[in-house]
Task: structure prediction
Amino acid sequence: MSQEPRDRPRETPPCVGFWRRELRRALGGALNVFAARMINLRSRGGWVTPLSLEAYRALPTPSPLDTTRLIVGRSNRERARLLETVLHGRGVPVTRAPFRTVEGAGVSFFAEAGAGPRVLLLAGHHDAVPGSPGANDNAAAVGILLALWERLAADPPRRLTVRFGFFGGEERGMLGSRVYARTAALGNLVGVVSLELCGIGDSLALWDVTPAVEATPLVRAWIASVEGLGYRRDETYHLAEPVPFFGSDHRPFADRGVPGVGLTAVPTASAEALRAFIYGGVRGILVPPARRPAPFTTYHTAADRPETLEPATLARVGTVLEALCRTLDAPGGGR
Result:
C-alpha cells in the first residue's frame, strides 16, 4: 500500500492534471520508500526466514499463508522471480509485463480465468518496502489471488473474464499499475479491486467508494455478494469514502474512468480507531506504528511477518472475491 496525498477539487486542464498527478505520485512513491527505510533502520525484530521453494513445492495444496511464507523476507526482485516460478509451476498461463521508467523498473504478471466479454481485474502487488518482510502488505494478497485463480480455473466463469494482476512497483507510487493503465485497453473493464492488508481482521472494508462508485455494477455486485454470505453493512462489511494519504493499484484505473476500489480486512474491535487514524489528517498518519490500530500496527515495519496473519481472514477474503466473480458472471451481473 502506497502513501499518496489526494487531489483537492479544482478546475485544471486534463493534461496538466495528469502530469501533476504523475509527479505527485512519483514523489510520493520515493517518500514512501524513504520513510519505510528510516522506520526500519534500527529494527531489532529479526529478519524472517522464508519458506524454501523446495518445501513449498512439496506441499500437496499450498494455502495462501504458505504462498505468503514463500515470498516474505526477500528482495523485490526475488519476490517477482519466485512468483513467476510458482505461477508457471501451477500451470497458470502468464503474461509478463516488464516496465522501466525514470522512477524505476520492475515486472507485473497477469493471468485470466473465464472467457466472457466483460473483465474484472483483481489486483495484488508483489513488492514490499525496504526493511519489511511484507506479509500483510502485500504477500497475503498474492496468496489469496493465486488460490482463487485455481478455483476459478477449475470452474470458469462463462460471461466474465477475471484478470489477476500481480503488479510490481506499487510501493513506488503504484508504478506498475500506472504504466499498465496508460498502455492497456480498458474499455471492457467492469472494475478493479485492489487487495491491500487482507490478512488481519474479521470484517471487510471496501474503500474509495463515492456515491457514483457505489452505483456501479461492481459495487452493487459486491454488496449482493457479501450480504448473500451473511455480512451486515456497517457491522461486518463497510463501504468507506475516498482515503487520504494511502493509495493502491486501483487508482490509476479510476483516474481513467474505470470503477476502482481497494479492499482491506479490518478487525471489528479496531474499526472506530482505524477510521480516526485514516481520516484524521497528517497528525494521525504521524502516529508511531506501535500506537496505530490494527492492521496498521505492522504496516511497513519489520513486524509485518507471516505469524501475524490470520488464516481464517485469508480464507474469508478469497470466499468473498469468488462470490463477487460468480455474481458478476450471473445473468444481469450486478447491473
In short: Residues 7-12 have pLDDT under 50 and may be disordered. The CA atoms of residues 20 and 172 lie 16 Å apart. Strands lie at 2-4, 95-101, 104-113, 118-123, 160-166, 189-195, 203-207, 237-240, 245-247, 260-266.
